[in-house]
Design brief:
Layout (H helix, E strand, L loop, with lengths): L17 E7 L11 H15 L4 E6 L2 H10 L6 E5 L7 H4 L2 E5 L2 E8 L2 H4 L5 H4 L1 H8 L5 E6 L6 E2 L4 E5 H4 L10 H12 L3 E5 L17 E4 L2 E5 L5 H14 L4 E5 L6 E2 L2 E2 L8 E2 L3 E6 L4 H12 L4 E6 L14 E5 L12
Parallel strand pairs: 1-2, 2-3, 5-6, 8-9, 11-12, 16-17
Antiparallel strand pairs: 1-18, 4-5, 7-8, 10-11, 13-14, 15-16
């Protein structure tokens, strides 16, 4: 494995204070055939809600896109457009993973191949992580392994959840062993306790990203869909908690309403929520589960607005709001960024 690392930095929990949340503006018509404008408007809707509590950075490829972002977000002063062209919009996956070393910002970027080479070209997205870090004046450490941000879930206190179906998949890391993967994840993320969970969401094309399967809502509570409360997963969570000196509690979010496109089931999941400074954005798909999921999240985040974002068009791209965002933890000296384009 490569020698460079983010040693002594830690991977904060998503509920830790943010400096900003980062998006990449949708431009790939193959991802959202016939629904591009509705998807852009839904993302702009989320941006406006998030921007009430933090800055929102949006990667764009042209002046036309920048004008559209600002128009769709009602020229919100906290929405900032940056000149960072992309192949696609999945900022969680092609963006850098931001860390903290004390109060200083650090970053690690992973090799990116569009979920195992499924959606070429991805040359611009492969470079996106390092370019995002550079916008904030830091140099991202390049890990030698290939994975995406959606494969990583941290409690901010040394526990990491992930899946072997993604990290150890031959379409990403054909020669990587589990022990090598753990060594690299611990070295880069400061998470000495790793739980490997199992499961997949029907219709998902990521090979089992954890952000559709299991999410921390505090340092010792994990939300799961009931379908993943398997003996193996519950034992893995019990074991990682024991190693970290915690008792991990498990709670559940309901299954989301199902939707299909051209006969294929879409990966609708309430698990793909985003925790921001002043709100939690919940992917909503219609039906009673939207309200039930909102109430459960409100019980864990009573000081945040739970905003149900209609994702029936967004999910046509096979991901939702968490997949489309990447948080930047608050760090010493943060002064924001200005519109570049």
């Amino acid at each position: 494995m490569a020698a460079s690392s983010t040693a002594s930095a830690v991977f904060p929990a998503e509920w830790a204070p943010h400096a900003a949340t980062w998006f990449t503006w949708p431009t790939n018509v193959d991802t959202w055939t016939n629904v591009m404008d509705p998807v852009r408007r839904r993302l702009a809707e989320a941006m406006k809600v998030i921007a009430e509590g933090e800055m929102v950075f949006v990667n764009v490829s042209s002046e036309e896109e920048a004008k559209e972002v600002h128009a769709y977000t009602d020229h919100h002063k906290n929405v900032i457009t940056l000149d960072l062209p992309s192949n696609d919009s999945w900022c969680r996956d092609h963006g850098t993973t931001f860390l903290l070393k004390g109060t200083e910002l650090r970053a690690v970027t992973w090799h990116y191949n569009a979920w195992g080479g499924k959606y070429p070209p991805f040359d611009l997205d492969e470079e996106m992580g390092s370019r995002m870090a550079a916008k904030l004046g830091i140099r991202a450490v390049q890990s030698p392994i290939t994975l995406e941000g959606g494969a990583l879930e941290s409690n901010g206190e040394g526990i990491l959840l992930t899946t072997a179906s993604c990290v150890l998949n031959p379409n990403r890391n054909p020669t990587l062993s589990k022990s090598q993967a753990e060594e690299e994840l611990i070295r880069q993320l400061g998470t000495p306790h790793i739980a490997w969970l199992e499961g997949d969401l029907e219709g998902d094309d990521t090979d089992g990203h954890i952000d559709n399967l299991a999410r921390f809502v505090n340092t010792s509570t994990v939300l799961l869909p009931r379908s993943l409360a398997t003996k193996a997963n519950l034992l893995a969570l019990e074991d990682v908690g024991s190693r970290a000196g915690k008792v991990i509690q498990v709670d559940f979010l309901p299954e989301a309403a199902s939707h299909s496109y051209q006969g294929d089931l879409l990966p609708c999941s309430h698990m793909n929520f985003l925790i921001a400074n002043s709100c939690v954005i919940l992917p909503a798909y219609g039906g009673p589960s939207d309200q039930e999921a909102s109430e459960i999240l409100a019980s864990y985040f009573p000081d945040k607005t739970i905003y149900a974002l209609d994702c029936k068009d967004v999910i046509r791209g096979l991901g939702a709001i968490h997949c489309l965002t990447q948080q930047v933890p608050m760090f010493e000296g943060f002064k924001g960024l200005s519109n570049e384009i």
